[in-house]
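Board notes, transcribed. Complex of a protein with nicotinamide-adenine-dinucleotide.
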Amino acid sequence: MYDQTSERTPARRGEVVPSGLDYAPSLEAVDQVSIDESYDLWIDGKPSPPAANRYFPTVNPATEETLTRVAEGDGEDVDRAVAAARKAYNGAWGKMAGKERAKYLYRLARMLAERSREFAVLETLDGGKPIKESRDVDLPLASAHFFYYAGWADKLEYAFPGLDTRPLGVAAQVIPWNFPILMLAWKVAPALAAGNTVVLKPAETTPLTALAFARLTAEAGLPPGVLNIVTGGGGAGAEAVAHPGVDKVAFTGSTEVGKLIQKRLAGARKRLTLELGGKAPHIVFEDAPVDQAVEGVINGIFFNQGHVCCAGSRLLVQESIYDAFLDRLKVRLASLRVGDPLDKNTDVGAINSRAQLDKIGALVEIGVAEGAEMYQPPCALPERGYWFAPTLFMGVSQGHRIAREEIFGPVLSIMTFRTPVEAVEKANNTPYGLSAGVWTAKGSRILWVADRLRAGVVWANTYNKFDPASPFGGYRESGFGREGGRHGLLPYLRGGS
Ligand code: NAD
């Protein structure tokens, strides 16, 4: 395991100026959240004990304390969940008019908004992300997704004239741990708006907000079986996607598992969308507004500890401004506050799990061994919990593993380019194609570059901007299909793709 305390290098050029300000702790209250001693699966509108009676712990990664124990679903449980979803689809939900389905989605959107503080705290406790992110990003966006898709539920035939807008049936949806409630919203809202029913498998390290959401659906009066939640590990996910009673599979997670699923479903009469990994280029031209670009780059890689599929993890800076840009980046890096995710001043929270911490450490070690120059600002990491200091790598070449593989942590590789053509060539030199960023004062250059980047999303003079009305998805090893926007409905409609 890579030892973060022993290898920190001082700034290579320019003095790193400490932030100069100490912040008093400003802890979010946790008393609004009550966590049960254990959680069952959620099947047919109510808690349901797992067939094998097995439960696994879910841990607060900032403290390593066990929060509770959660049911470990298996094939038998998936069977029951799919049967409940089918019954609901063949019953009231399948026959319901779009404007009636919309009422449930609006209700869920409002309830999520009303209880967003409670959900935000739960998300932060279970996943380690800073409260200011779960409070200001994850929860508002999750609620906005339900609002947005509620609006489409009774307008499908107008949204897609001439298309068969009938639903597909039962959708199996598998989500990762980096944005648990938001990924649930991205998947569940369009599926229900289009009239499908759902079996959702949350990630094993972050099941709690999905289970809290399940209870919300009961309070909202959602008919039983419309949303079923099977918690558990990869095995439960594999059972769900392969189940013969499932018509549609939507997976968000690693490229490795995405490929397995694609192989497994080859030849099956199931629709599939895959939202997979990324290694996004973030290009800064010499005419870019430097301070804003530094902020964009910091947000691009350190937001959510870099546990972001579209994280701008490969920074490409024009050679003429490299030295000055690097100096400012280091200064800004030194002002990031790493620590207690429940503290409202925290910028970088805990790494989601021990396994992810080990993966980040291993790749960073490889970066050092391959000859890249590492820089970490001085920062004290808490003794307990899973932490990784914000990290820059200079002297990185295109062949280095840290420049090619998704690290999914707070680690940025910096490279340079001289001409726009070289920038585009280096940016596209990846098997992924999820997102990219470009910073320049010239509108024409933005268009020229965006046209040539092989990425599903290109942000210009900003980064990590999300909106329910805007489709999101990848090319190549980042997957296929779109979530968000009108496009996000198509995978859930018979005439869609
Ligand atoms: P992962 O692939 O290990 O797990 C994702 C989910 O799949 C989990 O719920 C897991 O239990 C389940 N799973 C594991 N094996 C399975 C199998 N054989 N069959 C079915 N399900 C299985 O990924 P992760 O580590 O949880 O998440 C990180 C990855 O997700 C990163 O690669 C990241 O880029 C990607 N991601 C992509 C997007 C996107 O929109 N493109 C969004 C968020 C995360």
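The chain has two domains: 12-26+278-460, 38-275+474-492. Residues 131-152 form the longest helix (22 residues).
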